[in-house]
Amino acid sequence: MTTDVEELARISLDCGYKLHREIGPGLLETVYEVLLAEFLAERGLRVERQKIVPIMFRGKLLDETFRVDLLVEDRLVIELKSTERHAPVHAKQVLTYLRLMSLPLGLLMNFGAPSFKEGVKRLANDYYRPLSR
Q1: What is the total count of domains within the chain?
Q2: In a domain, 27, yes or no
Q3: How far is the CA of 59 from the CAs of 42, 56, 95, in angstroms?
Q4: Are 80 and 109 in contact (CB under 8 A)?
Q5: pLDDT digits (tens, 9 = 90+) for 19-44
Q6: Alpha-carbon distance 105 to 95, whole Å?
Q7: 3-state secondary structure of 115
Q8: Residue 117 DSSP symbol
Q9: Which residues have CB under 8 Å from 98's CB, separation 6+?
Q10: What pTM does this model have?
Q11: Does some domain include residue 71?
Q12: Alpha-carbon torsion 42, 46, 51, 55, what sign?
């Protein structure tokens, strides 16, 4: 499926919203990860769970250092949490993944928040949303 990153984000947010509405907050992060991956796959998207993000440091490849919760179509990072509120480190984590993977956009979805809107955050890596055409 060839979909731009904005469309991937829109579909992902829609799936996340429906998931939050159907099962609510308070479950373990891994439950949301499995179910969101299934929702996205049902929409025809290719999703990788726990995708390894290798880094090169001083000439040494560290390939078990970071793992992205969900990578959609090799273009959109989704990091999932199930906490009462976002901590600043959560956004930094997503931005680090985006920089390491040279990707423009990521979503931080916290399913522990009272509402989905309160728990979702869009993060960009030197990326500007295109103007409407």
Answers
A1: 1
A2: yes
A3: 40, 6, 23
A4: yes
A5: 999 999 889 999 999 999 999 999 99
A6: 9
A7: coil
A8: H
A9: 77, 104, 105, 106, 123, 124, 125
A10: 0.89
A11: yes
A12: negative
* Residue 61's pLDDT band (cuts 50, 70, 90): confident
User: What's the CATH code of the domain at 56?
Assistant: 3.40.1350
Long-range contacts from 21-26, C-beta under 8 angstroms, 24+ separation: 21/116, 25/82, 25/111, 25/112, 25/113, 25/114, 25/119, 26/82, 26/112
At which residue do the structure tokens 């509120």 appear?
85
φ, ψ of residue 124 to 5 degrees: the values are -120, 145
Residue 20 forms part of a structural domain: yes
- 112, 84 contact by CB (below 8 A): yes
Any idea which residue has 């904005």 for tokens? 6
DSSP states along 41-105: HHTT--EEEEEEEEEEETTEEEEEEEEEEEEETTTEEEEEE-SSS--HHHHHHHHHHHHHHT-SE
Q: Provide the CA 64 distance to its chain's centre, in angstroms.
A: 19
**For residue 31, what are the domain limits?**
5-124
Residues in the chain: 133
Q: Tell me whether residue 133 is in a domain.
A: no
